Amino acid sequence: MPSSLFLLIGITLMYSTPLVFGALSGVISERSGVVNIGIEGMMMVGAFTASAVSYFTGNPWLGFLAAGLTGAIIALLHAFASITFRADQTVSGVAINLLAPGLALFFCRRLFDNAAMTPVYTTLPKLFGDKALAGTPYASLNVDVTVALGLVAAVIMWFVLYKTKWGLRVRAVGEHPAAADTLGINVERTRYVCVIVSGMLAGFGGASVTLAIVSQFTQTAISGQGFIALAAVIFGKWRPHGAYGACLLFGLAQALTVILGGGDIAIPSQLMAMLPYILTIIVLVLFVGRSVAPKADGVPYRKGAR
Amino acid sequence: MEVSPEYAVQMHGIVKTFGSFRALDGVDLDVRKQSIHAILGENGAGKSTLMNVLYGLYQADGGELFLNGEKVSINSPTEAIKHGIGMVHQHFMLVENFTVTENIVLGEEVCGTAGVLDMAKARQEVVKIVEEYGLEVDPDALIEDITVGMQQRVEILKALYRGADTLILDEPTAVLTPQEIGQLIKIMRDLVSKGKTIIIITHKLKEIMSSADECTIIRRGRYMGTVDVAQTNEAELASKMVGRHVNLHVEKSPSRPGETVLSIRDLHVKDDRGIEVVKGLSLDVHAGEIVGIAGIDGNGQREFVDAIDNLVHAESGTIEVKGKQIQNTTPRNTIETGVATVPSDRHRWGLVLPFSVAENSVLERHNEERFGKGIMLDLAKVEEFARGLIEEYDIRPEGCESQPAAGLSGGNQQKVIIAREVSGEPDLLVAVQPTRGLDVGAIEFVHKSLIRERDRGAAILLVSLELDEVMDVSDTIAVIHDGQIVGSFEQGTVTEEQIGLLMAGGGSK
Amino acid sequence: MKTIVKLLRKPIAASILAIAVGFLIAAIVLAIAGYAPGPSFAALFNGMIGKPKYISNVVIKATPLILTGTAVAFAFKTGLFNIGAEGQYVTGTICAAIVGISCDFPPVLQVPLVILAGTLGGAACGALVGWLKAKFGINEVITSIMLNWISLYACNFVVNVPAFHQPESTSTYAVNPSSYTMILPKWKLSEEGLATLKGTPWLYEVLVKTDVNVGILIAVACAILIAVLLKRTKMGYEMRAVGLNREAAQFAGINVNRNIVTCMLISGALCGLAGALAVTGLEPHNISTLAAFENNGFNGLSVAFIAGSSPIGCIFAGFLFSGLIYGGQSVQQVMGAPSDIINIMIGTIVFLMALSQVVPMVADWLERREKGVANA
Q1: In what helix (H) or strand (E) does residue B269 lie, and over which residues does it extend?
Q2: SS3 at position A79
Q3: How many other CB atoms sit within 10 Å of the CB of residue C51?
Q4: End-to-end Cα, chain C, rounded Å
Q5: C257 — contact with chain B (CB < 8 Å)?
Q6: pLDDT 10s per residue in chain A (306 long)?
């Protein structure tokens, strides 16, 4: 029994990791006051970049970093629209979700003989080395190294947001940009930085799919994780630790489907798969209710307008 | 005026335009060191614009700025802060869910290594300034939990924490009781005696007379001169400000109260955080009478009006309009019972800004058959109705019925709301802060409209934070404190000081 | 110059400019990737309108897009972001399939019944989201995303229910032919029909080679109805008021919560209708296991935003979107250029629509500059 419990934990962590990066991406952006619906698209670009770079260089770590970079570049577009041009952030995010996967698949086909998938390549190692713990009941606890990276990212973000001056400023900008402005905090620059970091994290999220969970980029590498991450942000009340918890819940649900789906349990696997989403709604109704977004979330800042 | 180090701030020939609008047209300001200097002007005269230029929020299109006799240019609040200028904005610039300490240190945080906050040390520093200047406030409280007066102190502390020598206070008394105003003036005097220079922006003459040393007057973006306060009087200041002789008093005939229209008994209401803020309020308003509610912001005014309008749930008690209980029904029911409300915040509650003036003019009665048969809405008929109101209430610009309400001036937006509310000939008109942010002409219009409605036989409930307004316009003055009516007087039988004492919770019922 | 300024002030100017720049960016990307833009666009338009069959297919594919686009635009106008269009569409297909397989009435009864089932399914989904928002204040985005997944798995569940499952496939049985909404489905394949159609080749191509159906008429009618509802009725007035300033609407005695539920219900109904029309009007007239979303609803978001959230605009944006997607396949066949260029193009257009407020600003700037010149 412990080994199946470990298996459950292992799979939970595996599936929750891309969500964690995605949700952290959402938290940092929205905390600064920019709604980011485009996480899905940014993850897609990250997933592709990670594969392509890992394939061509043979170094998955380079792929991981490159994914952060391309995610950030796409985010720059969103930042440009929502901060400099004060565009409708929802519309811009939806555009990113079309544009980014379009770019990823376009270049995928261009580079790999018109195939909407990459060849197989080297992925990131396991946390304790690829051969460690093999054959022991703990084997399934030797999770992907990205799991640890996701946790570290969450801890860092929590620390930065709540324990450093930059965090205090980011939170102030997301709540009351005019107040921050009058104290000499550059609202636009703060938001730019946060949105770019958001894109980088989303890129990492994509990479943690194609460099850990699967070893090939396909058209459906990212299918909805970005949106679930978005839900996790709201579920976690725009806090890194809350969002992390929400991602674990979604990961657990997915893991249960995988484990129970294979067995001879009477519940059809499709209904099992539905469960986490139904559960989320019920939890929101019963416990969370009206979640309060940062006050200036989604509101472009116009100097002098009050 | 000569440039000299005797002056903390000198602004000469300042010009600022927004598009084609010239907000400041060659304004001068010379503020002596260690003095209290008032800037007087109507709403929209350009006072705040001038101060925003000084504070680096706006860049002037022309003119020169000197601090302590030296020419400088200030391009951002950061530079202003560096030059020792601090500003307390009229709408406080405080992050509501941050603590007092967090708000004060924001932007100039106390840090250990690598940007890690040292909040314990920050707290100590805040406590030090609090004690030095005697500005008592709890450093650990959340902004959303403290009173407006306290929030203002936090704003002053923010400036002092940054080492400000010159403090700009924008309309600092708008939200205070007479007693709090007294305290503020004392604080200002203390600060001046400790070497600070203070600029206050205001349109209230009485405060200038009681606090300022000198006063610069601005009218429609133009410089109207600087006077020594000791050598002038309220009437002179008023005519300089408005540009004509103004009657500072509201003219009206004595009221002839009729039957009781609104009767509230033992009303209890909780605010959106679940805290009881209306605690057993009882009040009567009669036909043909204006009852003014005096009180400090946050004493339950908003919630008890919201309860009349059925926007919030009343925990207990009754609200009767013309003998019919309306509490805990629907906003629709309140309106249909004959209650009209001019809300406190016209952008938030009063208008749908992107809607045209015509669309706004039927916000409460679009369902009537005259605006379209059955489910259809006939825009032509709505516009025709709006044109009637525009003419009757002289809403500018002419022919604005098809323009978005957002494009109108504040005064004209308020006229749209009043026209709409009054056009239904309500039995009870509730007006909350009806003159907020309006210039003298528009204020006169609003007051006249209220009196005209009274004379038509409506019952008027006026809720205002401006004590002068309540004292001048009301036939009966009721004081609200801590969710209860703690005193009620006929006009002319009570002094401002007595009311102020009750507002602050002093005295007995 | 004055006419340019005037044209720029028109709301449609932003859409047209965005589309033009979208093509330009696509051309640049194609050129960089080594494909000649000119012939690529030629292939695109040829694949869109080169044959009657192509046009017919573009129209067929535009049907769900117009409906889901209108649904999203409508919700957006009333202050709600319906990212759940996808799930509502899927629910529509599920309900239509279940009823279409289970019942077999004469077409005159069956067709409305099946379509109604799908519409109600979508409406229920939307209304649930609205109700959760109105009653508990739960953000509609989160519930919509959850319901998207729930409906995806519900679809897969229904496909595997023995009563519906078509053996040795990943789909259900087809709905009974009495539910079909194609134009003259039996006649066009009868000997008589084929004989008649041979005389007019284009009609033969359109009717026999494609699933041309009544859906498009319904979709266009719905978009117009929604436009009238928003602009010309008291209900629409209330909905817009709620969308633009919820607090002022509440203050004026408008029942905000009821409006939120109604708006989401209508929006969901349109998506469900789109799903039902796909089942009744298109081969294979069934639903199959979904591995991922098919984007009929998500594309509605793009359509709505290209249209600047105007329901009438959604008709045109729907055709454009459908044409680009369908014609895009030819770009790949003819030029070998990845058809994903179309997504880049559409993404760019939507992105530019987000920036659309720049256009009137440019008009202002041009006007001022001209005045400046005149004054000088």
Answers
A1: strand B260-270
A2: helix
A3: 15
A4: 17
A5: no
A6: 577 888 889 999 999 999 999 999 999 999 999 999 999 999 999 999 999 999 999 999 999 999 999 999 999 999 999 999 888 898 899 899 989 999 999 999 889 988 888 888 888 888 887 777 777 777 778 889 999 999 999 999 999 999 999 999 999 999 999 999 989 899 999 999 999 999 999 999 999 999 999 989 998 889 889 989 988 998 898 999 999 999 998 898 888 877 776 655 557 778 878 887 888 888 888 866 566 788 888 888 877 543
User: Do A184 and B111 lie within an 8 Å CB cutoff?
Assistant: no
Give C233's contacts in chain B (Cβ within 8 Å).
Answer: 372, 375-377
d(CA C268, CA C80): 12
Domains plus CATH for chain A? 2-288 (1.10.3470)
Contacts of C248 in chain B (CB under 8 A): 348-352, 363
The answer to whether the CB of A14 falls within 8 A of the CB of A212 is yes
Say how far apart CA B152 and CA B173 lie, in whole Å: 10
Bridge partner residues of C182 (DSSP)? C213
Q: Which of residues 118-137 of C touch B (CB under 8 A)?
A: none
Structure tokens at C196: 């008649």
**Alpha-carbon distance C242 to C237, whole Å?**
9
**In this predicted model, what pLDDT tens digit does every residue of B236-270 receive, in sequence order?**
888 888 887 766 677 888 888 999 999 999 999 99
C293-352 residues touching A, CB cutoff 8 A: 293, 298, 301-302, 305, 332, 336, 338, 340-351
Q: For B170-231, give the DSSP string.
A: ESTTTT--HHHHHHHHHHHHHHHHTT-EEEEEES-HHHHHHH-SEEEEEETTEEEEEEEGGG
Cα-based distances in Å from C93 to C109, C211, C226, C268: 18, 17, 22, 13
Mean pLDDT of chain B: 90
pLDDT level of residue C85 (50, 70, 90 thresholds) = very high
Asked if residue B277 has pLDDT above 90, the reply is: yes
Closest Cα to residue C178, out of C104, C118, C115, C119? Answer: C104
Provide CB contacts within 8 A for B358, sequence distance 6+.
B379, B382, B383, B385, B386, B401, B402
Q: What is the pLDDT of residue A304?
A: 57
Tell me how far apart the alpha carbons of residues C283 and B237 are, in angstroms, rounded to a whole number: 83
- Paired sense of beta strands B70-72 and B7-18, if any: unpaired
ipTM over 0.90: no
Quick check: B67 and B8 in contact, CB under 8 A?
A: yes
- The tens digit of pLDDT for each residue in C122-133 reads 999 999 999 999
| Closest A-chain CA to B18 | A304
- Residues contacting B118, CB < 8 A, separation 6+: B110, B111, B112
Q: What is the per-residue pLDDT for C212?
A: 87
* Domain annotation for chain B: domains and CATH numbers: 7-242 (3.40.50.300), 258-338+426-509 (3.40.50.300), 348-424 (no CATH)
B211 in Cβ contact with B200 (< 8 Å) = yes
Residue of B377, B417, B420, B432 best to disrupt the C interface, most CBs of C under 10 A? B377
First to last CA, chain B: 54
How confident is the model over B307-319, as a mean pLDDT? 95
Q: Which sequence spans correspond to the domains of chain C? A: 62-304
Instruction: Print burial letters for C139-165: b (CB count within 10 Å at least 16), e (below 16).
Output: bbbbbbbbbbbbbbbbbbbbbeeeebb
Chains that touch B (3 or more CB pairs under 8 A): A, C
Q: Residue B93 is encoded by which pair of tokens?
A: 């610039």
Under 8 Å between Cβ of A62 and A126: no
Check if the beta carbon of residue B83 is closer than 8 Å to that of residue B67.
Answer: yes
For an interface test with B, give the residue of A32, A160, A173, A183 to mutate (most B CBs within 10 A): A183
